[in-house]
Automatic annotation (TrEMBL):
Protein name in the entry: Antibiotic biosynthesis monooxygenase
InterPro entries noted in UniProt: Dimeric_a/b-barrel
Classification lineage: Bacteria, Bacillati, Actinomycetota, Actinomycetes, Micrococcales
GO molecular function annotations of the record: monooxygenase activity
Superkingdom as given in the UniProt entry: Bacteria
Length: 103
């Protein structure tokens, strides 16, 4: 069951666009180890704007994810990769469709 999500938007520094894309790709194995992360997506909106969207069964799983490996890596590498602080929003999921599940 999915009840809550995170929406994260980051803006790459000029010349760091490929580094941000590579960073996001490299996060997948970390997220795969998180039992509470039900789905995770790394996104590219335009040449320098990227995002992460992930969903969780509850706020506890969401907070565990935020304090986990990807969150720590964002904090550690953010100053080098991003032109502004990541925009992180907690959101509620009102409907969803995942393989093998129904809301």
């Amino acid at each position: 069951m999915v009840n809550v999500a995170l929406s994260v938007v980051v803006h790459a520094k000029p010349g760091k666009e490929q580094d941000v894309a590579d960073f996001l790709r490299s996060a997948r194995p970390i997220v795969e180890q998180e039992e509470g992360t039900q789905a995770w997506f790394a996104l590219q909106f335009d040449a320098s704007t990227f995002g992460i969207f992930d969903v969780f069964p509850d706020d506890e799983a969401r907070q565990t994810h935020l304090s986990g490996g990807v969150g720590q890596a964002l904090a550690a590498q953010g100053a080098d990769l991003f032109s502004t602080e990541p925009s992180i929003q907690n959101v509620d999921v009102i409907a969803y469709k995942l393989p093998g599940e129904t809301a």
